[in-house]
Design a protein that fits this description.
Distance between the termini: 36 Å
CATH superfamily of the largest domain: P-loop containing nucleotide triphosphate hydrolases
Oligomer: single chain
Largest sheet: 6 strands, mixed
CATH class of the largest domain: Alpha Beta
CATH topology of the largest domain: Rossmann fold
CATH architecture of the largest domain: 3-Layer(aba) Sandwich
Helix content: 10-25%
Radius of gyration: 23 Å
Low-confidence stretches: 271-280
Length: 373
């Protein structure tokens, strides 16, 4: 079994963190919840940085913690890496010095330091002191240092919280590349659902120390739409179809007949590109999301509209809230969520199974690749 088996309870104010769950040791698992929900505490327990816990932890069929028998493998012996929101580098050392420290602590190093330096884009920074680096550069060094310890599992505790949008986007792309290149499982804690939507394969949601949701990232985000805890949205992962350079648009393939337009993704375009050309190194699928409040409903198809995204759909659910309605619609294989006023729901006489059209602007399609967060 390539899982992390958790059966733990941690006492702390104002509630207990209690988790009985198997987490995958593959891909990237996001951990989401509001401040104080227990996210960072969970990582500290897994890493072995706290002994204030009861229960058991089994990593890849190996017991690393059992409170009943007082069995506790120390943090430095668990082969689990941890990257904090502050880089925690040695300020008196250069970038290379920080990386060599990790290598010296690794018993049987298999990774090549030059490969990791290149992978994390640190080549031109290698001789600099870490105090000369920007926040984004320091986090890249912290990531490289953690990787050179060759952990079986990498924990990331809000590593992008202090970075600006541009550096966040760069780091998310880097983390994705690192995971796919080294095939190292990651648990990524964040209070930003936008970050997790861009990166995670699965999502674990904590609420007051308990697991409220766990599963595929897109499915869990959609489940949260009915809980009142997030900005209601449609979460998507779609292939890039083409770039309409002259019009400043990129299109995503929704299905055989329909596509979605968003602002042009210039980073995937080469010089002298033709309208229908695409770069060979662009992602196979683009992660994006659309806030439910940015989508409207019409009963008739409008061909004479400036709104570029206009899709035929069918209503599958209508959920009345305080002053709004959350309408769930099916557009062939894709579910969309639409938030409209109660007045509009009544005026349009909307019912389940109604054939309708949804519409939204290109600018309503958000992705960190076009600078949104």
């Amino acid at each position: 079994m390539s899982d992390l088996n958790l059966n733990i309870s941690v006492n702390y104010d104002p509630f207990n963190l209690t988790i009985e769950r198997q987490l995958p040791m593959t891909g990237i698992t996001g951990i989401f919840g509001h401040s104080g929900s227990g996210k960072s505490t969970l990582l500290r327990v897994i890493a072995g940085l706290t002994q204030n816990a009861q229960g058991t932890i089994i990593c890849k069929e190996k017991m690393i913690f059992n409170s009943e028998t007082n069995y506790f493998i120390k943090a430095e012996q668990r082969n689990i890496g941890l990257v904090f929101q502050d880089s925690r580098l040695f300020p008196h050392l250069t970038v290379e010095g920080n990386l060599l420290f990790a290598i010296n602590r690794c018993k049987n190093p298999q990774l090549n330091i030059k490969d990791i330096i290149e992978l994390t884009d640190l080549t031109v920074l290698i001789d600099k002191k870490v105090t000369q680096l920007s926040g984004g550069e320091q986090q890249r060094v912290a990531l490289a240092r953690a990787l050179l310890a060759e952990p079986e599992l990498l924990l990331l505790d809000e590593p992008l919280s202090a970075l600006d949008k541009q550096n966040k986007s760069l780091m998310l792309s880097l983390l994705n590349k690192v995971q796919k290149t080294l095939n190292i499982p990651m648990y990524y804690v964040s209070h930003s659902l936008a970050e997790l939507q861009q990166l995670a394969d699965n999502l674990l949601v904590l609420n007051s120390g308990k697991v409220s949701h766990f599963g595929n990232i897109h499915q869990v985000i959609h489940q949260l739409n009915n809980g009142g805890t997030i900005h209601q949205q449609t979460s998507l992962s779609l292939p890039i179809k083409k770039h309409l350079v002259d019009y400043g648009l990129t299109s995503l393939q929704l299905n055989n007949d329909q596509e979605i337009y968003l602002p042009l993704l210039e980073q995937y375009i080469t010089k002298n590109i033709t309208e229908d050309s695409t770069k060979t190194d662009q992602p196979k699928h683009l992660r994006c999301f659309i806030f439910a409040s940015d989508i409207s409903i019409t009963k008739h198809e409008h061909s004479g509209s400036s709104i570029v995204n206009h899709l035929a759909a069918k209503i599958t659910d209508i959920s009345a809230q305080q002053r709004t309605t959350l309408v769930t619609v099916q557009c062939q294989q894709q579910v969309f969520y639409v938030q409209i006023s109660l007045w509009s729901t009544k005026r349009l006489v909307l019912k389940v199974d109604d054939e309708i059209y949804i519409q939204f602007k290109a600018s309503a399609v958000h992705t960190l690749d076009n600078g949104d967060s």
